[in-house]
Amino acid sequence: MKVLRQPILWIFGSGAAYAGLFFARPLWYTAYCQTSPDSCSVTSLNPLDRMIPIPGSIQADSYSNWLQNGAGTLAWILPWIILRKAGLAVALNLMLLAIAIANGALMEVIRALVQRPRPIVLASPAVEAANIHHYTSFYSGHTSFVALALFFTVLWARRLSPAQRLLHGVLYLMYGSLSLGTAILRVLGGRHYPTDTLAGWFFGTLLAFYLAGPWLSQLKEESSASI
Prior knowledge:
The chain is mainly α. The chain has a domain at about 75-225. It is built from 10 helices and no strands. Helix 4 (about 60-80) runs parallel beside helix 8 (about 140-155), helix 4 packs antiparallel against helix 9 and helix 5 packs antiparallel against helix 8 (about 140-155). The longest helix has 29 residues, at about 85-115.
């Protein structure tokens, strides 16, 4: 399918950018909480972000990982279960992968620009403040991935036949509830601030909408399937 050319290009292009930015972190990240601890205290946060628990819950952190992996698995296998057409399922899987990698690249750029310390730095500055990889709190990767994976699923499910519209409503509910659940768990786990997770939800949803819309329209034109 011609429509797959763009997602495949996004996978390789965004993947190279993501990997390059990640491994180049030592070039531009600075452990400023180590030299200026006063700028990295709970009192420096806005009122909403002061809600973070210090230290965070290990269980909540673990549950957020399970929720992220479960949402990704669901978004990956649903095209195979519902559409029952390998070509379309592969196309949708590649689109999802392209959006997820693009989100990773965008996230890495924004994290490099903001360099916000994670709550773990505030909880234990003597131990954690020197690690540059702990200055990547903004925005939440877990929340953004769950939001983009499930919103992408909502978008292609809108093209289902009228008899399957009930599923679309269920997917909308899952998109909202699981994105919110992931955001809450990331905060309770002490991994992110509330504004990190709000931004993660926003960027994940935005990328899914911005990228998936045109690709799905092209796929619809090229395929006679009911999506």
